[in-house]
Structures are given as C-alpha cells and as structure tokens.
Amino acid sequence: MARCAPLTKYNRPYRLLVVALALAIHTAHEAAGLTVLTSKIEPVHHRWSRSEAMDPNGLYTLDWHVDQKDIVFTATANTRGFMGLGFSHRSEHMAGSDLVLVWVDDRTGKPNVLVSKGAGLGRLRV
C-alpha cells in the first residue's frame, strides 16, 4: 500500500490547493515509480501571469508564472474527492507523463500528495 505524507497547515476541508507542482514533477523524474513528497512545502506567492479554468464551471483552475528557469503552478479545485494534474510531451498518450494526485484523508482531514509516472492505457506506475 502506498504511503503519502501530509502537507503542512491545511485549513480548508473542502478546497484542495496544490502549490509547487514544479517540485513534485522534478521529484518524479528522479525516482523510478512512486514518489511521495515528504519535505515541507512552503506557500508560493506570485502574481500569476496566466490562469485557465480547467472545467466549464470554473471549479478547477490552473494558475502559473514563468520566469527565466522555472514554471510555478497553483492548481485549485473545489472538491470533496481528489484532484489530478498531469504533464506529457505527447498530449494523446499517458505513457511517460508526470502525474500528481492530491486528496484529503476522510479520517484525519489531512491532505496527501502522490507523484507518479503514467504507464499507459490509463494506468499509473505505482
């Protein structure tokens, strides 16, 4: 069974906010298979240069800022379930893509982050 570390100081029980996805994606490249974020994730304060609603109701938004060497993302979703975000060099295939899943544990109320690679055919490599 996969272990996932809680994020720090999460105080909105039904609003998931993922900050520093660039860190998570970088970590996924360095490991084979499952990666769990265990280091403290500090809030990132930016004036986001781009923002995109990822669903027709605006319940899932992606904001980002590009500087000389980094892209910093914030993904926000109003959900009681989970939120996922993936990046791939080939938009029609999941194989080899970098994936981040986040959810709130129903028992503890703590958010969790799972970083993985797409294995293709709708499967994750865990």
From TrEMBL:
PROSITE patterns: DOMON. One of its GO terms (cellular component) is extracellular space. Keywords: Signal. Residues 58-126 form the DOMON domain. InterPro entries: DBH-like, DOH_DOMON, DOMON_domain. Pfam families: DOMON. Transmembrane segments: none annotated. One of its GO terms (biological process) is norepinephrine biosynthetic process. GO terms for molecular function: copper ion binding; dopamine beta-monooxygenase activity. Residues 1-33 form the signal peptide. This is DOMON domain-containing protein. It comes from Anopheles dirus.
